[in-house]
What we know:
The chain is an alpha/beta fold. It has helices at 9-12, 16-37, 39-48, 69-75, 113-129, 153-159, 171-181, 190-202, 227-237, 348-357, 393-408, and strands at 93-98, 108-112, 137-140, 162-164, 185-188, 215-218, 240-245, 255-256, 264-266, 271-276, 290-296, 307-316, 328-334, 339-341, 344-346, 361-372, 375-384, 414-419, 433-435. It is globular and about 70 Å long.
Amino acid sequence: MADGKYWNKEIETMPREELEAYQLERLKEEIRFAYGNSPYYRRAFDAAGAKPEDIKTLADLGRFPFIDKKTQRETQGVGTFLGELCAVPEDDVVFISTSSGSTGVPTMSPFTKQDFDEWQDVESRWFYQAGMRKNDRYVHALNFSLYVGGPDVIGAQNLGALCIWGGTLPSERLIFVLKTYQPTCIWTSPSYAWYLGETCKKSGIDPVKDLSIRSIFVAGEMGGSIESTRKAIEELWGASVYDFYGLSDIFGACAAMCEEKDGLHIAEDHIYVETVDIKTGELLKPGETGELVYTTLRKRARPMIRFRTGDIGFIDKTKCRCGRTHGRIHVIGRKDDMFIVSAVNVFPSDIEAVVRGLKGITGEYMIRVYEKDYTCRYEVTVERESSNSEETDEQVSVRVLNALRARVGVKPAKVIVSPEGSIERSTHKAKRIVDERNLTYQI
């Protein structure tokens, strides 16, 4: 299937007009299938006065109601084990994953064999797009326990790479694998890629000189799309970092970077993307920032129609310099993580971009969000590098505070400087926000 730089050239470089015609035909079928087979969608569409035959153009999708995580939780296990959103009998389901539960009760995601196989073909596309080839050795250092990213190792195997199913090995064991088997590619979270590189150096192993990693795929956090974080990891490893993006609600391979690293190509042959106003749900134009909303175009087990992801960003539908025509999403944060200080929307990703880009500090950080005098405030804790003998803690604090004010638009109430190694390192998704607020702040 692979053709030069493309895994599937016909799909990846399809002219926009043809791609949107394909999306429309798939959307019509997906809406018909959901209405005819899912108890929830039939009820919800009827209540909204929307029928499958209403879909004449892609814009007509706006007639149909949104769903979100709350919808999933309320319908999960209702009527059948798989719940009211499911559109196939359990006998047709071959795999389920669950969400992490970081924003509430974990939600289950079912897949038919067709769903699963198509998901892994998209994953092969992303690996190939990021430069993986048959002669690569690949370590899959992601959690296999119900996590939707676990099975994506099969996408690398389908591509033909030699795959090492690492999973969540202890760091010392994973470093042994890297040193002994000399793999060329690894996939983990940005926080863990940083932590693992630091741990190698502390063990007397130079990731650049002693290991063979040339490509690092990261997912699960914002870091891979934050230029300063990505470049810091690249410098630490002497490797190229590519950000991948998946949702358990859709599948573990929704979007990924190409060599241009200008956003993440999303699989528009499988997912139709809308962007809506966070407050009103009003449809925004491509390029405008809002909440990303996804509709599956080929999913059988559980179609997702107008799923509000909680991710804040925008989609660029112009042709990429790499030659691919599928839109590129730019995710700038999570609606759940955003907080408002003095009428300014603050995203942790903006804080990370500053902290990772400054010299004299390690790049590790923690954010505390709290209330004072009925207003929302925040403070940031950073680590001073032990080798930084040129500045006092107060000087580091002032420098970081000014940099945050310039980037974020509102300064923190305080920047606390702590010794190197005082902030706990993460071996998976880093938890960097402590939210002590009691008030509810409307976005």
